[in-house]
Amino acid sequence: MIVAFSISPAASDDEGSVSAAVAEAIEVVRASGLPNETNAMFTNIEGEWDEIMPVIKAAVDVVAARSPRVGLVLKADIRPGFTGQLAAKVQRVEEQLARLADKEA
């Protein structure tokens, strides 16, 4: 399964930024050893329920240590029997885009 999630503290720093708290959460995810990637809006992590959820909880906990209130958004793609989908899903879309480009050429 792949889970896309976003964690944000309710309280920002003096400049209105939440990047330091978010960086600490991402550090937890990267230390987990599970496949992951981060973009401007979400961090994606791939694994099984029992692997992913403790990592997300630990990431929330480090943000909660900085802020009395934390926002968490989760979106999950649950597809038993499939692994390596973090890159494979994107590759399939890129292949379709290439086919469309070839048709237009």
CATH architecture: 2-Layer Sandwich
Order of helices and strands: EHEEHEH
Query: Spatial order of the strands in the main sheet?
Result: 2-3-1-4
CATH class: Alpha Beta
Tally of DSSP helical segments: 3
Inertia-based shape? globular
**CATH topology-level fold name:** Alpha-Beta Plaits
Overall structural domain count: 1
Which parts are unreliable, with pLDDT below 50 for 5 consecutive residues or more? none
Classify the helix fraction into a percent range. 40-55%
Secondary structure: elements and pairs:
Layout: E1 2-9, H1 19-31, E2 36-38, E3 43-46, H2 49-64, E4 70-77, H3 85-104
Antiparallel strand pairs: 1-3, 1-4, 2-3
Helix pairs in contact: 1-2
Characterize the structure shown.
It contains three helices and four strands. With 105 residues, the protein is an alpha+beta fold. It has a single domain, classed as Alpha-Beta Plaits (2-Layer Sandwich), CATH 3.30.70. Strands 2-3-1-4 form a four-stranded antiparallel sheet, with helices on one face. β2 and β3 form a beta hairpin. α1 packs antiparallel against α2. The longest helix is centred in the C-terminal third of the chain and has 20 residues. The radius of gyration is 17 Å and the shape is globular. It holds the Pfam family Thiamine_BP.
